[in-house]
């Protein structure tokens, strides 16, 4: 039966056709599985300038130098695997976990590449020099940017804390390092308070990549108007009751700080305080008074003054041969005192016993003014300059002066 079929040419043609179709199918399927099913030969490509990532304890060690910092890698694998590399956060790692301070040569390791990818690194190792980190305490320097508003000035800035700790490579321990905080005070009219990030700079002003603890500080910059410290002058008004004098006049302050425009401060040599009224006093009195704020003056420090006044019964004392001084003389004339003879006066004064006990003739000035007087004899008043809280007992204090041409 089989022989009969094989002798039939039509049957043989059908069988040959079927065998051809089967052979084509086998070859075609094998080709598809080889190209599309992942059984093709491995491909490779090169990637340049891949950064080397060091892994180490940055709190204890510092990389002084590392060579190379970038490498070339050759990746091998199937096409599908290689395509995944672009979307993969791969790394070329320099593991310094077991490295020591000083020079080290450490093999580079490829990490986080897609599975099925073989990686070759050129060069396969890196040379690295490690330094030990140490701690160094440095003061914080505050730099002010800009200028306060017109008429105001910036005071001394205060940083809290005022000193910080740097963790630096041992090679920088003896170097001059400045830690700065910058604060903008442009157009400020009141105190500026800010939190400021610190930067560390070397002696050339280049920023250093070092650890600063704390990295941020609080800075306060006082903003005030210009000020000037000057004597406080108290104006005495009136006198104690007849027969009484001031024994003690004690002010709680003698200097005051005055704030205001600089051009006004330049004109002030002292600041006039409140009047102290002694009129008719017969006993001790304490004053607590506000210091008046004058026009254009913005602030006073302090703002009050306390005055202690002690009143005692008066005493009298005569000072003999107090010399008379002539003022206002014309250089073309000779001026002399005819009376009192000798050009001196005996002057009786009144004051507290304690004040008079220390009073001497040289503490009193007796002055005659001959300004604009023509030649001849003239009777003129003698003006007395007496210490505070000492007064003249009523008496005739006149002098006769003679003016003659030279």
Automatic annotation (TrEMBL):
Entry superkingdom: Bacteria
PANTHER family attached to this UniProt entry: CDAA REGULATORY PROTEIN CDAR
Query: Which InterPro entries does this chain map to?
Result: c-di-AMP_regulator, YbbR
Designated name of the protein = YbbR-like domain-containing protein YbbR
Q: Which Pfam families match?
A: YbbR
